[in-house]
Amino acid sequence: MGPATQRVAGPAGPPPEPKGAIMALTQASGTRTEPRRPSRKGTLTALLFLAPFFVLFFAFTVFPVLYSCYLSLFKDKAAGLGLGAVQKVFVGGENYLRALTDPAYTSSFGNIAVYCLIYIPVMIVLSLSIALLLDSAAAKARGFFRLAFYLPNIVPGLIAAVIWLYLYTPEISPIVDAVKASGGTWDLSSTLAAYFSISNITVWMHTGYNVILFYAALQAVPKEVLEAATVDGAGPFRTAVAIKARMIAGAVSVATLFTVVGAMQLFAEPLLLKTKATAITSTWTPNMFIYDAAFDKHDFGYAAASALTFAVLIGVMSWAVTKLGSKADQ
Amino acid sequence: MTTLTSPTQPAQRTAPAPAGRRRPLQRVTWSSRLVVNLVLVLFSLYTLLPLSWLVIAATKDSQNLFGSPGFTFGQLNLLENLTELFTWEHGTYLHWLGNTALYAGLGSVTSVAVSFLAGHAFDKFDFPGKERWFSFVLLGVLLPGAVTTMPLYLMASSIGLVNTFWGVFLPGLASPFGVYLARMFCKSYVPKELVEAARIDGAGELRIFFAVAAPLMKPGIVTLLLMTFSAIWNNFFLPLVMLSDSSLFPVALGIYSWNSRVSADPEFAHLVVTGSLVAIIPVIGLFLGLQRFWKGGLGAGALK
After folding, report:
1. Angle of helix A17-30 versus helix A40-57 axis, rounded to 10
2. Residue B13 resides in a domain
3. ipTM of the complex
């Protein structure tokens, strides 16, 4: 059966094959002359492929965000003496104003800022240094090291925090034993101890993962560049710092972006540690504050307003990191 | 991610370079070899010692857990601990493991399928407003979970999904980051020409996706599968908020609930320790078994 006979058969039968082929041809030629006009059938198929994701995305991400916006403009007020039904009262921007002037909320930002300033530079610099060492000609047993470094990342965050919680507990921990044996004292109750004990957990969890990412990026550094550097008399240390590290600046800035976004959402680790590190309050990080407002105080409008403010801040921070990253990349 | 961060970086590779290749550029002195490997050994001790402590601690009974030095074996009590773990409160721990397998296992498989369908569409089809929709999805990557969790709880409670399997399972399925990575994988593993040739041969779009594109993207699929698995496994906020019935808990939430009882009853401490160890063993096994896939894919996904 040739295409001609089928074309005559036309609209009666099932979608004739040549139509698809012709469309594919026009599409194929379309790639050469941008911009091409999307065909209607193409759009329909694309829609079918995209539908599962977008249905879920709208239902479980976009709609909740819009619902949050709506909630943030209202306040629950109990009618009468607090015995009657709860009424939603429109309050406009009051929840936002209240959040921004709430010392508990603003201090949670202070805490997360200090934590980020400790954790992120330590983790990124450590990952980069280890990756450079792993990539250096002197390194042995690379396969073993990569596996050993990656393992903590497989442990779920909460279980990692549990392990370290026990390693911070005096009667149980070999670390505390070692500290005491060398004449030190063990005290987790100070604010500084809270920052460091939590940073240690997250450094432990995430450094290895970033080492693997940076190491993979280093494999893509062109050999010729490194050879040229050696010919020019650069030693291994200088090559690593001045050339390799610079060549993977893109990967480093992407990793930093994701680290910032993740680090700001700190939640499970302090929640678990607050029994031991007593400086940690139940509103210690923004996420803890939001959780507390919503599920302990049942102040949903207020929780929504603080969550949205927080989301905006994360957006601004990631924009800033992206800007800095692309500057460093040039 | 170069689309977001570094437009100047050339997209140089279609597949990651073979890892672990040596570059015998410079002569290496024994002293630098010593220093480099010493630092690497020290760092691997940092990553491995807490895990080995967990293994040792899981073999001890309560008394030894609190009494004996951390890195020495006390009286071997592993079997008793395991028996206690699996029979505690009529085997609730086994339920938690099963729940985790469903939430993270079934959840990640579904989510990855959804992500790759969308990623394939974004890369291989043209439709109006494509890039605008894609940027819209990318915005979702930056959205903190706290913003959606509370409204999700309220929505779920109004339709009776709070404290059910679906309340935790469904919200984890749509992953903007998954779609982003899937598009990158589609772009680097499946040439456009191949898809067009298949179209000319008269293959339907679904068949092209499953029979032509999917087999080529295997490393990418496995990588995303493992990443999504970890992401759902790691999401503690959502189950904490949604679930109050302990028979629906994922294992991390269950261990958290046991841990909060330790201060009242120290007996729970070794349940927590043994439970933590047992919970991570299957995941470590899974990652080790699939490492030849993700080692390549991981780098590719992060660099593009």
Report:
1. 80
2. no
3. 0.83
